[in-house]
Amino acid sequence: MVRDALESPWRTPLHLFGISMCSVRHRQAQTVSIGPWDAHRMTDDAATAPHSPGDRIADVAVVGLGPAGSALATRCAAHGLSVVGIDRGPDRRWSPTYGVWQRDLPEWLQRDAVATRAHPTVVTTRRVTTGRVTIHRRLDRTYAVLDTPRLQSLLRDGSYHIVTGEAASVGRDDVELADGTHVRATTVVDARGPEAGRRRAMQTAFGLVVPAARARPALGEADALFMDWRGDNGAAASAPPSFLYAVPLDAEHVLLEETCLVGRPALPIPELRTRLHARLAARGVRLDGTERTERVAFAVESPRARHTGFGVRAGMMHPGSGYSVGAALALADPYARALAHGRRPRSLPRPVQSLRDAGLRTLLELDPGELREFFDAFFATPHAVQADYLAPKASTAGTAAAMGHVFAHLTPATRRTVLRAVTGRTTDAQAGTD
Ligand SMILES: Cc1cc2nc3c(=O)[nH]c(=O)nc-3n(C[C@H](O)[C@H](O)[C@H](O)COP(=O)(O)OP(=O)(O)OC[C@H]3O[C@@H](n4cnc5c(N)ncnc54)[C@H](O)[C@@H]3O)c2cc1C
């Protein structure tokens, strides 16, 4: 379905917006204005101009321009498709600190999207007859912290058109906006991200940006901490646990974040703030009250797209970490290529989705001691097994093998909890939308 812009009858509706074929061809190479509207913004009137039923205004309409939708829109445009992106607040500045595994970063993404790289350490604790031992493991894979403003500008490269609007309903080839107008496309992709809801499992965290020299005692020898499960944060051993996440943001600053991996409900942010302060005090980190803060709260389960989805709406959020940005970046180009060739994009195999849903139920079911044991067992598995489990294109065999590996290393009591969770009811994550 990759068509020459000059020949494609599918481009014809673009004339509704007054764009010339010549400018369509140029838009991939330039980030400057195209046609009568700014490259970053097609007037909403133009995008939703009256047209007869069946007219398509674009090859692809991407609903939701978070990291996932923006990456997909960019890659679809790079493959020669005409793309309309729809978002209720496309000008919202992205502020989260995004961490991804280096190997998930695609070739097409410019290298300066990465702010820092590290080989993080995981710290777990294990109960032994004489008490509890602490185990430090340096992961042998590179972790990248993205430069969020740079990422946003790279994914808003002017190669696709943006409509500001609230999608009221997202169909296979039609999006109805809240004001009653319609945007039609050959393929509509739902990339609306996680949906907040009182009953949804959430990840929460509270972080402080601390000068690197002052943060040093929190990290010890490590250049970053992916998960530090040590109990020096003042919380009772029987309380829902949280861990320390620590990553360099640049040469001079480190983000220190107390994180509740997942909970229904998750730990409240004030509690995480108290724990972070207690932990940093216990490690001798001096704070002066001027530190920038980061607050994290997002749903780790979400309704899945009814038709074509991408990002969290396509099950790309990994329940073991709450990460989805790396997977979306890794999968944007293969998805776009499939759309450009008229193929249905391949989503995560259903058995992998089911196994991941079971993984999420397990994390929600484990008691505090079992959760620490679970992560100790996970990070004790060979690196290749962990990598298979965390991969954006995880295979059923790799996912099942990793889960089996972890299960085999658990105590009988924890195995019983896991079995109860795995055979229990399904999560909301499997429900459709709209
Ligand atoms: C502080 C913080 C730190 C984080 N750190 C990490 C990290 O290190 N690594 C990681 O992978 N993830 C991290 N996350 C989670 C990450 O932000 C999300 O998983 C990710 O943004 C999901 O991407 P998405 O594009 O699928 O959805 P979203 O980013 O949620 O984007 C969805 C978009 O759709 C739009 N939208 C939704 N509904 C509609 C509608 N009806 N009509 C029109 N537009 C709509 C929204 O405006 C939004 O722009 C973090 C989150 C926070 C808050």
TrEMBL record:
Protein's name according to its UniProt entry: Lycopene beta cyclase
Organism per entry: Rhodococcus rhodnii LMG 5362
Coiled coil regions, renumbered to chain: none
Domain of life of the organism encoding this protein: Bacteria
UniProt cross-references to SUPFAM superfamilies, sorted A to Z: FAD/NAD(P)-binding domain
InterPro entries: FAD/NAD-bd_sf (IPR036188)
Stored Gene3D superfamilies: FAD/NAD(P)-binding domain (3.50.50.60)
